[in-house]
């Protein structure tokens, strides 16, 4: 749904996507380029690729979409059969090109390239420590902090120990694709907050934020990279080694990956995202179904939820009884999406900004006119878009408009890589569901419960990051509550345990 103007601002923005490949006998640049296209939904601010040809590192990083950031000659200049790529939406650091990735650095022990999905919560502390030791920084992003810390450790330790040393120093969420000369590494934070998986290609191996990128390269998903695990790809594409460097008693998988961020055709932490969303929709019917004439999704984010909701409605009534009549509630596409509206179109007046959703979505009058309608969406952030949607459907002739949300209310910001609103901007942070319903002028409004999300993911609440819907976090964030004992690194760590 991230369209532009206020409509885009009313949705959480994607984080970042990372990819790394190691191939036998062919250049990595074009497969990396295709994989970044598959991950474009995760970031539209910048795109970049770093490769290594066995002798030197090559880099091309540019602002904009993948298709705009690379010319054919750019790919030809990126020699080498190993490399990493990145698409970015800024969540830490400024918007300028200096924070675009992959980040590259050369030092006495070789060259590093680093792509990062996530956000450190102790980046400032580590940056100050490194700066005091003589490291010069060119950006205010946390990715450069990781790169400098790893480079420092590589001066004194082998690759595996150096990575472990860095993992013991940084705190927060991260999935990393790294090049150290012609060796490609994948690292996932000890809580598994951000997704990362490994796949096999006909002539090598690939690491990626989502399995859809592996599919795009005609590869086979092997498995998710485990929380706290380091994966080292052989430079010739012949295999990989793994090292479990850090272990925790619980995980903190981001539930919002399944609700919103990931592509429906991706498998994350062993679950196909599309099927999870359908199950979330089924549970939404079980918890708060309303008998209406038609159920329709907000495209494209609400579609899988709405199909699950409609399937469940065909089996049981809203009060849970086995349905004896046929059909249940009609599923229909009642909102058409204009796919050619950019993210940054300019709305010069407040009235135009408030009505910007009309540039993005148009109701199909025959679907809603004279009917009671249930709209399914994945989230409500500020409430602006929901208000406009309800108004739009009423003006198209709907007699009743009910809104069902396939996630719990977002009551707190995300500190771990999602560009989400502050508490002051989050409509659910200080308003009840009834107050929000009144604000958006819907006939009824219901969210999915946190327990239903955990059940749909076949996970315990203790293994999920639920900070944005509970206000309690799995990492040690200054001024915020935690939902578990947090194993944060001490300040000024100078050596790691072997």
Secondary-structure blueprint:
Layout: H1 5-9, E1 16-23, H2 29-38, E2 46-52, E3 57-63, H3 66-69, H4 72-77, E4 82-88, E5 103-107, E6 110-120, H5 123-132, H6 142-154, H7 159-167, E7 172-180, E8 183-188, E9 197-201, E10 204-208, H8 211-216, E11 220-224, E12 229-233, E13 240-244, E14 253-254, H9 256-261, E15 267-268, E16 271-272, H10 273-288, E17 294-297, H11 303-315, E18 330-331, E19 335-337, H12 350-354, H13 357-360, E20 361-363, H14 365-368, E21 372-377, H15 384-395, E22 400-405, H16 433-440, E23 444-447, H17 450-456, E24 464-465, H18 467-470, E25 472-473, E26 481-482
Parallel strand pairs: 14-24, 17-18, 17-21, 21-22, 22-23, 25-26
Antiparallel strand pairs: 1-4, 1-10, 2-3, 2-4, 5-6, 6-7, 7-8, 8-12, 9-10, 9-11, 12-13, 15-16, 19-20
Helix pairs in contact: 5-6, 6-7, 10-11
Note the main attributes of this structure.
498 residues; seven-stranded antiparallel β-sheet; six-stranded antiparallel β-sheet; 18 helices
Please tell me about this protein's structure.
The protein is α+β, with helices and mostly antiparallel strands and 498 residues long. 29% of the residues lie in helices and 25% in strands. The protein is built from 18 helices and 26 strands. The chain has a 7-stranded antiparallel sheet. A 6-stranded antiparallel sheet has the order 5-6-7-8-12-13, with helices on one face. Strands 18-17-21-22-23 form a 5-stranded parallel sheet, with helices on both faces. Helix 11 (303-315) links the parallel strand 17 (294-297) and strand 18. The longest helix is centred in the middle third of the chain and has 16 residues, at 273-288. It starts with a helix and ends in a 16-residue tail after the last strand. Mean pLDDT is 90; it is low at 1-9 and 91-95.
């Amino acid at each position: 749904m991230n369209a532009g103007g206020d409509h885009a601002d009313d949705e959480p923005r994607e984080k970042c996507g990372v990819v790394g490949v190691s191939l036998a006998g062919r250049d990595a640049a074009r497969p990396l380029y295709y994989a970044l296209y598959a991950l474009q939904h995760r970031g539209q601010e910048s795109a970049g690729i770093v490769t290594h040809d066995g002798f030197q590192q090559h880099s091309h990083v540019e602002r904009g979409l993948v298709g705009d950031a690379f010319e054919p000659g750019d790919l030809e200049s990126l020699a080498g059969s190993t490399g990493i790529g990145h698409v970015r939406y800024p969540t830490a650091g400024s918007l300028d090109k200096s924070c675009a990735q992959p980040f590259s650095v050369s030092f006495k022990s070789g060259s590093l390239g680093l792509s990062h999905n996530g956000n450190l919560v102790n980046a400032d502390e580590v940056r100050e420590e490194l700066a005091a030791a003589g490291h010069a920084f060119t950006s205010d992003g946390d990715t450069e902090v990781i790169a400098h810390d790893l480079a420092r450790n590589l001066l004194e330790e082998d690759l595996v120990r150096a990575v472990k040393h860095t993992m013991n120093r940084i705190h927060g969420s991260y999935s990393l694709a790294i090049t150290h000369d012609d060796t490609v590494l994948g690292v996932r934070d000890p809580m598994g907050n951000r997704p990362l998986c490994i796949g096999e290609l006909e002539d090598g191996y690939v690491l990626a934020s989502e399995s859809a990128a592996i599919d795009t390269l005609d590869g086979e998903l092997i498995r998710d990279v485990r929380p706290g695990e380091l994966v080292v790809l052989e430079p010739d594409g012949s295999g990989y080694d793994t090292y479990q460097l850090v272990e925790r008693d619980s995980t903190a998988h981001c539930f919002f990956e399944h609700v919103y961020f990931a592509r429906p055709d991706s498998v994350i932490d062993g679950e196909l995202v599309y099927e999870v969303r359908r199950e979330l929709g089924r549970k939404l019917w079980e918890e708060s179904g309303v008998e209406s004439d038609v159920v329709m999704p907000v495209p494209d984010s609400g579609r899988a939820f709405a199909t699950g909701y409609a399937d469940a409605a065909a089996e049981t009534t809203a009060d849970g009884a086995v349905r004896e009549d046929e059909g249940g509630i009609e599923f229909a596409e009642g909102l058409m999406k204009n796919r050619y509206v950019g993210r940054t179109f300019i709305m010069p007046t407040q009235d135009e900004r408030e009505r910007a959703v009309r540039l993005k979505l148009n109701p199909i009058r025959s679907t809603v006119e004279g009917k009671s309608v249930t709209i399914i969406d994945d989230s409500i952030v500020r409430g602006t878009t929901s208000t406009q949607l309800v108004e739009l459907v009423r003006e198209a002739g709907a007699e009743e408009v009910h809104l069902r949300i396939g996630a719990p209310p977002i009551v707190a910001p995300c500190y771990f890589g999602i560009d989400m609103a502050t508490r002051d901007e989050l409509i659910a942070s200080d308003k009840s569901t009834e107050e929000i319903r009144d604000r958006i002028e819907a006939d009824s409004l219901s969210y999915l419960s946190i327990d239903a999300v955990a059940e749909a993911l076949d996970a315990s609440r203790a293994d999920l990051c639920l900070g944005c819907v509970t206000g309690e976090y799995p990492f040690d964030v200054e001024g915020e509550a935690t939902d578990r004992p947090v194993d944060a690194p001490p300040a000024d760590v100078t050596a790691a345990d072997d």
